[in-house]
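Marked as duplicate of an earlier ticket. Keeping the data here for the record.
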Amino acid sequence: MILRARAIWARKGRVITDGALQVCGDKIGKLGRRDEVVPDQCEPVIDIGESIVFPAFVNAHCHLDYTGLAGELTPGNSFTDWVKQIVEVKRTLTQEEHESAWLAGAGMLMQTGCGTVANIESIPGMFARLANQTPLQVCPFTEIIGYNEDDACEALELARRELSCNEPLALVAGISPHAPYTTTPESLSALAGLADELNVPTAIHVSESMDEWRMFTDSGGALFDSMRALGRPSSDCGLGTPVEHVSRSQGLAKRTLVIHANQLGESDYGLLAKPGVSVVHCPGSHAWFGHERFEYERLAKAGVNICLGTDSLASSGGNGSAQGLTMFNEMKRFSNQYPEVSSDEIIGMATWNGAAALGLRDVLGQLIEGAFANLAIIPLTNPLADVSDLIVNHAGPVGSLMIAGKRVFSCPKTIAN
């Protein structure tokens, strides 16, 4: 099948006007101007007219099972307050509620052009039960929490068990030591070692809040007090920044997604620029908590691979929750905060950068021959406007979404299909 469109945003730096794209099974075949992509004998040709085709988004961080918590929580007086809220709420949820929320979140992402998501799986076994119920390419990262000194062996056992179940069902499966404050140096090192042994990525929330910063730099603050009351040893606190702590603990695997990185010290930029390390920024969650400005410029200058993620609806309450999980909103928020960054660059952060973080740079996040046919379509609402700007500023559902060569969502009100 060949798709023809007024514009194809193939990858950062390449927009094809009057373009055509060949879909061969689950992969992309030929790509170019419509006169360059000649159909094979009897091959169907679909002209979608005044439309933009672009790679389906790669959401680099999400908690799908928190989708039902939209508007249920508040930022509180501190990040620690919010953590306590979510722990209490999660205790009241049934397995059915978790699973319904997970599937609802997957649906929201597909409706708004997302084809792949790096999802934190907090409930063992849930991904394996739900994976075949959605065409969304969910890359499950098994969440590991264990802050006692003897938790490392149990953490490794859980990680191995979940990986053995999840890997056959996913493009990529990984491990997620939750955060420095909910793990020990021993667990961080052991889990990173396991990830490297099995050649899988890790994802870890690092330096998400000022509470976490104070815990590791000053041995103080609300989070320090809360974790110490729960029995977490504190001998690893007061020795440096959270990023330094993870690095010193040998917790950075060969492929690590560092989630948030909202508070950084001078030495942290070099550590995050280590090959294989990516930083995932979630603009909506960042704004909801009222964090200080994300250090995009310094991270980019250091050569860090920066990706965008939605995080969860547990940290976007109020009006934001009504909009659901959508990478369009994350791009717009980022663009408003950093107007000097081109729309072309921002789309790259929402597509190829995330694919690179997952080790899938050659098959996701760009429209090239041999990549998965993961693509979204939106109207070309202004033929004179910049195509990248139109993508970043699109609102609502996409007209159509294809994942691995199959149309999985369409919205006739958005675009003819």
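See parent ticket for discussion. Residues 2-55+366-410 form a domain with the Urease, subunit C; domain 1 fold (CATH 2.30.40.10).
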